[in-house]
Amino acid sequence: MLMEGLKYPIKEDKGLINILIGGLLLLLSFLLIPAFIVVGYLIKVGAETSRGNDRLIEFGEWINLLVTGFVGWIITIIYSIIPFLIWSAVAFILIGILGIGGAGDSALVAGVGLLGFVLLWLFGLLVGILIYYTLPAALINYGRESSFKAAFRLSQLKEIWMTREYFTAALIPIVLMVIQYIVITILGFTIIGLILVPFVYFYFHLVIIRIFGIAFRNVVGRPGI
């Protein structure tokens, strides 16, 4: 999956043009519409990959990409807001409990405060991992079926999330994001490098969605999927 993903953005003659378009759109992402188009494009790549299409998907049908990206953004918010609300509730309860327990001794208050911070950070990390793990399959399923409801078909998605292929696909991008961070940090030392950052960012995210799409393709057709 990794090598297929890495080669995908540049596998055809128009690969560099695609990266150029994607990077330029990210440069203009503060206008929101270009950002939605990029999201729509990535969803389309994931969906087409899951159908077995190995050809590089080119930018086109801009309105469709815009709409797809906007809906994908809404799906992302919904998948994020429930875990965030749970985290907020836990934070509220934990702060209340630790506040009562730590009243009095200043050293105890400091220790309790540090403990509370660590616990909240760990729980927040778990929430972030949950969103990261579940969201790609939901977006790909939405793109495959062009149906908002498909992103929330939990009985089907659960079977995908629990496969070894999908778990592996979720681990690979963690390494890629570390590499991306190193590359972007190095580029950040020069003005020319800073200009290249959006293009690097687009390349890596195209690789990542391709990897998730391959995992999705490999498990589609199994019982319950």
Automatic annotation (TrEMBL):
Is Membrane included in the keywords of this UniProt record? yes
Coiled-coil regions, chain positions: none
Print the keywords alphabetically: Membrane, Transmembrane, Transmembrane helix
Q: Does the keyword Isomerase apply?
A: no
A Pfam family per the record? DUF4013
Tell me the superkingdom of the source: Archaea
Q: Where are the transmembrane segments?
A: 16-42, 62-79, 84-103, 109-135, 166-196, 202-220
Known InterPro entries for this protein? DUF4013
Query: What name is this protein filed under?
Result: Putative membrane protein DUF4013 family
Species this chain originates from? Methanonatronarchaeum thermophilum
